[in-house]
Each structure stands twice: as C-alpha cells, then as structure tokens.
Structures
1.
Amino acid sequence: MNHSLRFLKTCFVLSLLFLFTSENADAQSWTALGTGTNAQIRALTVYNNELIVAGDFTSAGGVGANRIARWNNTAWTPLGLGTNGVISTLYVLGSTLYVGGTFTSVGGVGVNRIARWNGSNWTAMANGFNDEVLAIWSFNSEIYAAGRFTMSGTTAVNRIARWDGTTWNALGTGLNEHAHALRVYSNELVVGGAFTTAGGVSANRIAKWNGSIWTPLGLGMNNEVYALIIYNGNLYAAGIFTQVGGVGVNRIASWNGSWSGLGLGTNSTISALTVYGSNLVVGGLFTTAGGIGVNRIANWNGSAWSNPYGSGLTGGGDVVSALGVYTSGLFAGGNITIAGGTAVNNIARWGDPVAVNEIGTGIPAEYKLYQNYPNPFNPSTKIQFALPKSSFVSLIVYDALGSEVATLVNEQLNAGTYEVDFDASSLASGFYFYKINAGDFTSVNKMILIK
C-alpha cells in the first residue's frame, strides 16, 4: 500500500510539473491591439517610440484615423488628418517619417503619392509622382522611392527615383515594370519587383544600383519579388516566384553572391519579412513552410523552418502583409480577424504578456527605482519600484543609443512596491537603460545583457 501511495503521489507531482512547464512553454501568445483597425494594414514601422501602422483603414481603436495611426502599447491615436488614399509603405530616416502610396493629399495638404512627417506636420516632396509608391529606402544618405509611377512632374522617372533634397531624379532609364521592395546590400541599392529590365539591362525581377549603373543579381526570378531583407549577412528575397537562377525554389531565396533556396520554402505567396530575435520571420498567404503546417506566418533560423506561433493568423482576407518588432514583441498586420484563436482586427502582437506584480503589504515612504536583478542577465531580469501614493507609472527600456526597446509599465497603480519581468531574448548583448516616470518622480538605471 505504501508503495502504491508513493507511486500515485509521484505521478501527481509529475503531472503538476508537466502542466506547469507546458504552461510556461506556451506563455507567449497572440493579443489584440484594442479594437484594431477597420480595414487592411499594409505597413508597420517604429517612429518616436511608437508603432506606426498604415494601410486602407479609416479608423483605429474606434478613433478616426485616415490610413495611418500610432500605437503606444495602450491606445491608438491618428497622425494628423491622415491621407485621402491608401498608404502602401513607411520608412524612417532620422527624425523624419516618409510615407508612400496612392494618396493625393495628406493632412489636408495636396501631395502626389509621397510625403513626410516631422512629428507634428506633413509636407510634400516637390511634385511627387503620377502613380503609386510601393517602397521607400535610403542609400548614400539620400531617399529613394520605387513603385508604379513613370513621371515626377514633367521629369520621366521609370518606377524608381532619387530625392536630392529639392527634386526627384531618374536612375538611368529606370525599370520596365513596377518595383515592390528596396534594400541596401554590399553598398548597393537592391530593387525587387515585376520588371525584367533595369537601365536597359536584362534583370529578372531583381537588380542592383551602385549610384551610376544597373546590374542584375544572377539570372533573377521567374516571377515577382514582393519583399527584401538582410538576415545573417545575406540578402533574402521573397514573393510569388518558384525559380531563382534557373533553380526551383518556393517563394523565397537568399543571395550571398549566388542564389540558394530555403528548404521546401512555402506553398503560396510571401508578402512580408522581418527579423525577430535570432530568426527570420515570414508572413503572407501560405499555409505550409518547409512542409510544416502553418497559417500565414513562420520562422526560418538559417537552416530550418519552424512554427512557434500557435495556430497563426486567419480570417478576413487571410493575408499577412506587414511585420515588425516593437517593445520586444512581434507585430503582424494585414487582412486578418483571428490570431491564435483570439479575435483581432487586422493587427496582433506575439510575445510574453508583461505582468506587474505587487510585492509586500506596506506603503513605501518614498518613490524608488531599484537595480534590476540579476545584473548582468541572460535573457531575463526583474525590476522593482516603489510608490508612496497612487501614480500613473511609465517604465521604459532603452538601448545604448537611446531608442526605446520595451514598454514594461504604462498604467495607473496604487501605492505599493511592484516587480516586473523583462525578457530580452529578442535583443542583442549590450548596455540598456530603464527609466521610470511616476508622478513627479523620474529615475534611470543601467543594466547589462550578456548572451
């Protein structure tokens, strides 16, 4: 009998441990961003410590927002009056946010498919373009735009142009068809799209510009390129193509002087790419990646595909068209209504929920921000703070350059002592700073992440 009781107790304890570790392993989940948006999201970026989203929508979180809005992990707000047409792309350079799309006015100002926001006002960029802007990037400290356009005012610019601070200029004879994506790789501007010539040179859907001439990247692709990114020192291109350099691939390939596929690739379109932690994240219309069942989102770690995102993203038009990272979370936007079983409206966040735990029962005598522990840490640490009275608390983590990487607390709290966990698994080793604002109290501490 004693042996039987011991056996049953052991099984019970092991069951509890299994449940506990399973719950911890699945702690990350999809969450909605308030009530989301009322139509598709096409682009994401981070600007002035807020997540900027853009697309087709006219409201975000129930607030009027014409095709562009910002999210601070708590609430949605519009960027001025927004635009009168679709925004297809966003890009940040220094203190300026650039937007491109089909619109002809922004903030009530007449513009043609491209404009810039300085944090408070919208301005035009000369004559703009006669058709849609699909991509914006910087090269040699100048802004480049690409898309479907062929003219800027009376100047012929075939689907790609350079901004010199005053006017838009052509890049040779440009492209014979539209472009979707821009990136800088090996000190050259890489362009991906639907074109088959660049500067009059044969270039199948992908080409590079060194500031004076166009050259192809190998034999290129047999169909359109929708997205480009740099990951682990290589250039990655994705879209709807099934061959690259004459070799069969499925919608994604990498370039480091020659082309190679990524295993079995995906079974349908890839529209968006981002880097999250040590992984390349892909989003689109696909339902398998590397032969693994997924729903519109998957990971590539440099050698294999995986699906860490539960049941993925579904509903709506079932497309992920934008991916980005903000405050240690992965954000996916598109035309979706369900994320991991959770109702969302076109945008969702994947990551660990940040819990603010009250510790102790007494009321502190003064405000205080304690040193995190452990420190140095890898990959998580705890941060404690004390409030002598009820206060609205903001606790934000910054990198060594002063850019926000995580908002840990942004809410009203009662008097007491609190602790939060900071998970830095998606960040690189280095020095970080965490700053608290509570009432009239402000304090900053330094911490070290070592991986």
2.
Amino acid sequence: MESHILKHVNDRTPVFRPNENLDRLIAQLRTLLEPVQQSVNAESGYPTLPVIGIVGCPRSGTTFMTQLLAATGAVSYPSNLLSRFAYAPHLGALIQQLLMNPNYDLGDEFSDLRSFNEFSSNVGKTRGAMGINEFFHFWRRFLPNHDPGHLTAEELKDVAVDSLRRELASIEAVYQKPFMSKIMMLQYNLAYFAHSMPELKIIHVQREPLYLMQSVTQARRKYYGSDKIWWSVKPKEYSFLKDERPETQVAGQVLFTEQAIQSQIQGLPRSRWITVSYERVCETPHEFLKGLAERFAMPELVSDLSRVDKKYQSGNTKRLNDNELASLLIEYEKLGGQLQGASAK
C-alpha cells in the first residue's frame, strides 16, 4: 500500500481499519481472476441501459438514496459481496447470482446465505452480503487518484474511460438491469464524465446544511476519534482548507462540494440529471420515484411501489451542542459570502 494511502490509517477507530487478512486474500484472488475480466472486456461493448450515478456531499443522504433505489428491484447495484470482486466484476456478479438469487437455487441449498438490503449504515458502510457498497475499489482502478477529489485536465488524460465503460457493461450483461452506484470518485468532474459516458444519469442529493455539517463532524469523530483529521471527499479548495480549523474545513467541504456539483451539472441536458432534497425524499419517496421515472424515462422504477415504504425517518435531529452548531453555521455563512463576492467580481 502506497504511503499516501497509509496516511491516517492507524488513526482510524478499530471498526474502520483495513482487514489485512482480507486484503491478502483479495490480492491472491485478483492475480488469478483479473485476467478473466480482461478477456470479458475484450468482448464487451458499452452499456446499453442507464448507469445511474449518485452524487452529493458526504452525509447528504447518498447511502439512503442507493438503498431506496435498490429496494425498487429495478436496478442492480454494488453489494458488499460484489465489492470483493471489484477487479473482476463480471465474474463477481455471476457468483452473486449463483449464491444469492433464488432463481438459481436448488432445494434452498443457499437460503441461509441470503440477506436483505436494510435502510441502515455506519458512516456509509452497510452490513450484510447484499448491503450497498460504495465500490471505491472498483472506481479507483480507472482513475489516477485514490481519494475522491477534483481531477485536473492533465489528470483526466489518465482516466481509463473505455475500460470503465466496458466493465460496467459486463455487470449489466449479468443482471440485465440499469446499474446504480455512488460515484463520489467522479463527482468533481461530472461534465467530463457525462460527456465521455452518454449512458450516465446523475442523481444529486442535497441536505439541509446544518444537519449535513453536523453529520460530517460526527463522522470524523466516529472514523478517527477526532474532528481534526480530514475525512472523505476533497473539493478543489482542499489545498486552502486543509490547514484551517475543523469547523472551517467541514463548512468548506460542504459548501464547495455542493457548488462544484451544481456548476458541473447545470450545463447538461435535463434528461441526464436531477437534484433532490434528502428531507423531501424521506417524506414522500413514492412521489420522488414517480418523478425520477419520468425524468430518466425508466418506468420500471415504479412498477412495484409496494417494495418501498410510504415514508422514511430522516436523521435530522440536533446531536452537537449549540456552540458547535453555531460555529459551523458562522463558518458556512462566511465562506458563502466570500464565494458570492468572488463570483461578483
């Protein structure tokens, strides 16, 4: 593992540290199985069905969004099981079908393995073989950066878009459904990827900034045991933010990430993207899915709404003290004022 990847690994709380035994086993399997994927790629075309990418600030409700779409049964998605085969996703998808799809069972031989996609997570991580996975190990294979962040024009030249699209097509070939995933690795360069991947459709999730910043602060403490270490995505302004106080970092991460996503998608055709409120989707998920089905021309999203609850509880409750929340809001408003002032010049 390279030194920049090792940075802060030992600072993580135990539940978020890598499993070295798992890493070694996956490395062995990768040596054996990656050539299989390369052979599949040579025969693959490009996706013929939509690839749905979920974007947004960390802790904005992107995990909930993936769980909601998965519950419709209309899309395939990266499960914790499939993520173990991120270097050979076609084979991984076939293995997942073999083990988890009852259509391929014989006398309930594998019924004890099956788990359900639940609406819960721990800083984006889910439990169960079929829980939603962020699929970072897959997306990183095609990009020059390890952490989700903005890519320069020079770095974009090193993105393996052709291979990425072929591997997405190899997943689609197994499930025969649109593929849906978080795409945090792509979200700071959405205009580029939307142009390079005509199958890409984008769901941009927004959340009320106060609760969003609160949740990012809590994620830092849960992940590292401290709010002083940077956690998750890095907007283009990271070089400025990295030396600021924690509350400034969090406010800037939220504000600049939101601004970057909005500026990237505004120039795309309306049929390619939708911006939604996390709070509103929790309140009226059926109405959201109906609107999404119409925008993306995907009626299969609403073919069986009985799979989806009529309402979900949002996580918007105050968990930090008043002084901490006030500090976050002050920094958010200050940076927002600076951003507006720069835009006016």
